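Exercise 7b. Backbone tokens:
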């Protein structure tokens, strides 16, 4: 019995190919010997190949759905609903029209290339989503790659080493799979268009008419998500424009860093108004304007600030408060620290690297040059910190030098009260020391906001194991209310620790400057929040605050809504002007 298919008298195959199967051979292909036929670039298909139209149709439908979904995926996480995918992507219509016009040979390699490029853009879209949710800005393809390492470090701090490796590996495999599958989907759609040229042309023309009509009337099924989608084209355009802009910014920033009016001022003249004072600069993680003005957050925080103002006033201290506009929001604290200390706007990792490899004068280095001992308590730094030398710190203390033996609270390696206790024991109370300039970073209010401890007596802190004896303060509310409640609690705890420290250990020579580094993520603040952070200067010596009288900051620890607002990068020079004996050249 012959294995060849039955033939009609003319010798042609008796079975017609399935028109719904883009992989099925055409009659010409099945009857021609290998290497011949209408398309010499297409290998001959064995006439005996089993035909499964249901499988081919399913794969073709999945390919179309995958490409369609990748083209219309929204920009923000909160827009990811099934209805948000009921849109018409103009990029898909344009690509289908292009495939219809191409010769078969070109179509076979262009279709998978377009699919692969779509996969790359989908990865960029996912990065944009993550950056918008955490840093309140889109991903920058030139400057932001180093931040993926910081994201991994964050995962290690929250999920452990094994969990971080598993998540990173899964993300890498998913990225490879997306590009590969969309390339394969593009190739299949190219074959589908070839097999159904007339039907494809009609579908493209009809959808183009619908897209145009929806664009003209601004049709939306989901608010802010237009049915007439062009989001992928907009994304590609934005990324193409962002790359040269980010590259040019390197030269712009180098010029800004090199231009420093205070570089030539004698060190003794920059800070002469603070001679003999111990200046403590404290960054409170995620302490933003919303913490003291958002009705969903401010009750706990304002209560601590107002009570603290009264307590400090009774102890002989006074305070002035205003606002600074941070260059960042949501995360990237080190960039805010760099902005504050350098007087330069640092809003991306490229600028940060440019700063710390320059000879820019920082506030901390100015204190060192003028004779202060300089130290930094860094409970959030777990690796080598070569930047400490650039900033001018004589004695930095990363987390592994602080001797904490208590429980962790979310990302924070130790409670803020313990970090302040370490500063007090190691530096502030050190016998025979000279005037100090100290940076103390408080991390208890770092996301994720899971729990905070209660305050304990300063003489009970020891190595921190006392915190293991108390139940952590948590919330069982559902998201997003839980984040809001725990965020407010953590800010209140950080401020309470700081106020208690200055009330307990501060004296006539203490000058405390404390501020937030940035606003928290939009899940807490809501969309459209400012980038403002509160800043406060506390001192017992009235001469210190007299020097900033022309700043017109508000009395107390809490700035009013209409308090002055400066760019964060403006603080360094204003501080030199207020406390130095030389004006800006």
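Sequence design result:
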């Amino acid at each position: 019995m012959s294995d060849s298919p039955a033939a009609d008298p003319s010798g042609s195959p008796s079975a017609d190919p399935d028109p719904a199967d883009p992989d099925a051979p055409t009659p010409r292909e099945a009857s021609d010997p290998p290497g011949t036929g209408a398309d010499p670039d297409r290998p001959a298909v064995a006439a005996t190949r089993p035909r499964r139209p249901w499988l081919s149709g399913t794969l073709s439908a999945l390919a179309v759905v995958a490409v369609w979904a990748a083209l219309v995926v929204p920009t923000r996480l909160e827009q990811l609903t099934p209805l948000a995918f009921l849109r018409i992507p103009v990029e898909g219509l344009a690509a289908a029209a292009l495939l219809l016009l191409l010769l078969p040979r070109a179509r076979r390699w262009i279709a998978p290339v377009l699919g692969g490029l779509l996969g790359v853009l989908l990865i960029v879209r996912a990065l944009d989503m993550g950056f918008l949710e955490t840093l309140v800005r889109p991903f920058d393809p030139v400057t932001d790659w180093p931040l993926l390492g910081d994201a991994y470090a964050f995962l290690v701090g929250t999920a452990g080493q094994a969990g971080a490796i598993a998540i990173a590996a899964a993300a890498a495999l998913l990225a490879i799979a997306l590009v590969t599958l969309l390339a394969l989907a593009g190739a299949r759609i190219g074959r589908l268009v070839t097999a159904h040229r007339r039907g494809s042309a009609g579908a493209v023309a009809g959808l183009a008419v619908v897209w145009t009509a929806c664009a003209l009337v601004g049709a939306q099924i989901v608010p802010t998500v237009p049915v007439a989608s062009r989001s992928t084209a907009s994304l590609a355009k934005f990324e193409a424009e962002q790359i040269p802009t980010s590259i040019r910014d390197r030269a712009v920033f180098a010029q800004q860093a090199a231009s420093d009016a205070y570089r030539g001022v004698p060190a003794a003249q920059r800070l002469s108004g603070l001679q003999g004072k111990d200046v403590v600069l404290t960054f409170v993680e995620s302490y933003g304007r919303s913490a003291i003005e958002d009705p969903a957050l401010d009750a706990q925080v304002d209560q601590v600030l107002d009570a603290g103002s009264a307590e400090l006033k009774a102890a002989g201290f006074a305070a002035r408060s205003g606002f600074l506009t941070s260059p960042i929001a949501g995360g990237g604290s080190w960039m805010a620290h760099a902005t504050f200390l350098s007087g330069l706007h640092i809003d991306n990792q490229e600028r940060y690297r440019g700063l710390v490899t320059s000879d820019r004068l920082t506030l901390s280095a100015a204190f060192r040059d003028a004779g202060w001992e300089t130290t930094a308590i860094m409970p959030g730094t777990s690796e080598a910190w070569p930047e400490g030398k650039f900033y001018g710190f004589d004695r930095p203390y990363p987390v592994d030098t602080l001797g904490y033996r208590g429980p962790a609270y979310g990302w924070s390696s130790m409670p803020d009260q313990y970090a302040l206790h370490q500063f007090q024991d190691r530096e502030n109370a050190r016998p025979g020391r000279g005037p100090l300039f100290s940076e103390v970073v408080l991390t208890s209010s770092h996301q994720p906001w899971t729990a905070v401890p209660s305050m304990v007596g300063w003489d009970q802190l020891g190595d921190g194991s006392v915190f293991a004896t108390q139940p952590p303060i948590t919330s069982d509310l559902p998201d997003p209310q839980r984040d809001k409640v725990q965020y407010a609690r953590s800010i209140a705890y950080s401020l309470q620790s700081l106020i208690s420290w200055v009330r307990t250990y501060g004296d006539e020579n203490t000058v405390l400057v404390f501020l937030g580094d940035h606003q928290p993520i939009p899940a807490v603040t809501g969309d459209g929040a400012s980038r403002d952070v509160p800043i406060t200067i506390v001192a017992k010596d009235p001469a210190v605050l007299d020097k900033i009288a022309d700043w017109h900051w508000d009395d107390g620890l809490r700035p009013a809504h209409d308090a002055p607002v400066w760019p964060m990068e403006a603080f360094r020079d204003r501080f030199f002007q207020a406390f130095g004996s030389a004006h800006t050249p």
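Instructor comment: Residues 147-195 form the longest helix (49 residues). The two ends are 103 Å apart (CA to CA).
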